[in-house]
Amino acid sequence: MHTPTSKALFRPLFTTLLLPSTALAVSLTTLSPRDTPAALPRVASISYSGNGCPSSAPEVDKLGSWSDLAFQMNAFDAQIPGGTTSSTNCEVHVQAIGCSAGWQVGVKDVYVKGHLVLDPGAELDYYVTSFWSEDAGADVTVSGSVPNTGMTRLDEDVTAHTSIPEDQVVWSQCSGTDGALGLLNVNFRVALLADGDQYGYFGKDADTTATESYGSRSLLRHNLPPDRRPSPSSNATPSPSAACSGGGSTDPPPSTLPPAQFSLGRFGIPLNAAAVLYSIWAFLWSFWPQAYPATASGYKWASPIFGVTLAGSLVYFVVRTRHTYVGPVTEVEGRKLHAR
């Protein structure tokens, strides 16, 4: 519970943390006055939902102000076997207002911290999903896992950090003259898994109050001064000035969009078309061999067509369409792994 660096994104921002007696904390890093809005956002209202913090009795304490916002969760835990639940979630709904006009906010980094106990063979999976209610269809989910692959019980505090690539950040609406950014929803869920009766626990340390946390560093973006705008040839995400002033989309033009991880490219379409047509011909021939009699001439052409298509596809993939993974990357106790 999806990195090219964009010159149009401003990175003073805040870090949000959630802890069980836990805290969703926000710490603002200040660069220069022109990198931050004249008026920072503030929290107008907060609500909770989920079996880890039910709205009827959330057992969540709000701490700090916008620059160091925190939510301490006092009853968030999951346990196997025999626990009340092996999966626990808490969703925080934050209404943000008071920001200078023309700014947007997006979640950039996610932190998960808690006390973990796992018998050998057990595993903890976590998921963080964030979205804005004003555009609920646009969301981003990061996830990771902490398995115990050793021979002894794991019993320690663990911390995981996932950074969302800036081209996958989900942005709020542009703040207007009223400073409203919208309703941010962040859902945190953990699940304990085991293939037997192994013991697993995630939550508060038995000897302390709050050890579990998750969080997010948010980005703010606004119109770029002329001297800081990316050049037309840059692949960086353009300034959102057009969207925040009603002038158009913040997406770069199609010619500047980075290719997908498995992009076909210019020559991929004819290569795939040739492979599909050949496969259809071979399939039909297997049912009606008399319609396509096997001859020396036919075999003479079939083998080169198959070989050239296969070799061309492999060479084209290696040279042109293979790309470096740029999705979320999770670090767990100093180890890096790709988030699912």
Number of helices in the DSSP assignment: 3
> Helix and strand succession?
EEEEEEEEEEEEEEEHHHEE
Could you say which structural class the secondary elements and strand pairing correspond to? alpha+beta
Q: In terms of per-residue confidence, which ranges show pLDDT below 50 for 5 or more consecutive residues? A: 1-34, 208-217, 223-243, 246-258, 334-340
The proportion of strand residues reads 35-45%
- Please outline the major beta sheet: 12 strands, mixed
Helix content: 10-25%
**Total domain modules:** 2
* Tertiary shape: flat
**Total beta strand runs:** 17
Distance between the termini: 10 Å
Using only C-alpha atoms, the radius of gyration works out to: 26 Å
Mean pLDDT score = 67
Can you offer a commentary on this structure?
This protein is an alpha+beta fold. It folds into two domains: 10-256 and 328-338, no CATH class; 268-321. Helix content is 15%, strand content 36%. It has three helices and 17 strands. Strands 1, 2, 4, 5, 6, 8, 9, 12, 14, 15, 16 and 17 form a twelve-stranded mixed sheet that branches. A five-stranded antiparallel sheet has the order 3-7-13-10-11, with no helix packed on it.
